[in-house]
Amino acid sequence: MWLLFLLGFSGCAKKNMVNAARNAFNDNNCVKTLEAYMRSSGCPDVHLVKRPQEVVIRCKKDDADRGKVWDNYWFRVTPAFLNITPEQLPEVEKHTICKDHNHRVEAYPPE
């Protein structure tokens, strides 16, 4: 019973983190805003994975030094006009924290 409560609470906490991140953007330039927040969290360098239609970014830090969102979460940057399948759309929208004319930024908690 306690395990279900903790798992549910954990899910709510992660959802609240994504909502907080979403509220931190003004949607003018998602990528520059993300960069500013990551730098302000003391993120000197990032892990970067480039694919044809996406870039995945995460701050390079020891786990003990990580904060809650900007230097902890994984961020997926895709073109704003990218066609997303109807099956994937609910998950993508759940994690989208910013979408401007050029880019969509999604936030995913660490595993």
Notes on the structure:
It is built from three helices and five strands; from the N terminus they run ααβββαββ. Residues 1-13 have low confidence and may be disordered. A five-stranded antiparallel sheet has the order 1-2-3-5-4. The protein starts with a helix and ends with a strand. The protein is 36% helix and 25% strand. It is an alpha+beta fold. The protein has one domain.
Order of helices and strands: HHEEEHEE
User: Structural class of the secondary structure composition?
Assistant: alpha+beta
- What is the overall shape? globular
Uncertain stretches of 5 or more adjacent residues: 1-13
- Work out the count of structural domains: 1
Q: List the total number of helices.
A: 3
What is the count of β-strands?
5
Give the proportion of residues in helices: 25-40%
Strand content range: 25-35%
Biggest sheet statistics = 5 strands, antiparallel
Question: Within the largest sheet, what's the order of strands?
Answer: 1-2-3-5-4
**If you compute it from the alpha carbons, what radius of gyration comes out, rounded to the nearest whole angstrom?**
14 Å
What number is the mean pLDDT? Answer: 85
**Termini separation (Å)?**
22 Å
Key structural traits:
3 helices, 25% strand, alpha+beta, disordered N terminus, 36% helix, single chain, 111 residues
Q: Care to give the gist of this entry?
A:
By secondary structure, the protein is α+β, with helices and mostly antiparallel strands.
What topology does this entry show?
Blueprint: H1 2-23, H2 30-40, E1 46-51, E2 54-59, E3 74-79, H3 89-95, E4 96-99, E5 103-108
Antiparallel strand pairs: 1-2, 2-3, 3-5, 4-5
